[in-house]
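Extended Data, record Small ribosomal subunit protein eS4
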Amino acid sequence: MTRHQKRLAVPNSWPVERKTNTFTVKAGAGPHGEAGVPLVVLLRDVLGYVDSKKEARYALNNDAVLVNGDPVSNERRPIGMFDILSFPSREEYFRVFPDEGGRLALTPIDASAADGRLGKVMNKTVVPGGEIQLTLHDGTNVRVDADTDYATKDSIVIDNESKEIVAHFEYGEGALVTAVAGQHAGRIGEIESIDVTLGSGSNGVVVSDDDGGYETVEEYLVVIDENFTDDDAPDATTEEVDADEAGDSDE
């Protein structure tokens, strides 16, 4: 397997310039699969907090960056949708959220909102002992009691310190959702209707919002709560730094 990542071949969700340098940092093993953005890309190319991988390693070795409440030491750790980035010394907190066009953006949030992260339930299985295992969109597995009422396509909030579920948002008509993929990515609205498709096809969903609404498939939707629609929050950080100004792309 190659250790290199060409900029032209990165997923569309990565917030990087594609026609500057040839290569960028390749994501390491971890959550979010191939869609995960290496942490150093966000620190260097988006936030501009470091100029190189060497500076990123120094910051991480001093526990200056937390991901979902935990210190991170690997600059190539994949970061993806709904992860929480915290910079305690700077008192800055960000949630990774899909922007228009599907690119991941860093949305500034309050410290209180950084205590937990959202996860979409992708799979639900029974494990030995009778408990239920929920698999989330980033690959995280969470075990819950068999009598709890969680379903696939629901969303849960996991406390970053206790790792316990602290909130549950059900998927269905009337639910507040955001599109995370497709041409409507980044738009927030309420589910108006769900068109169940017979067979293996995707169910269609009509979502109403202030721009007249849109239609999409339910795989592209994630249930959220009203905290994600705070109009008073600062604008999302989506700037892209030219690689020539940010140092070598792979150093």
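Summary. The chain is about 5% helix and 35% strand.
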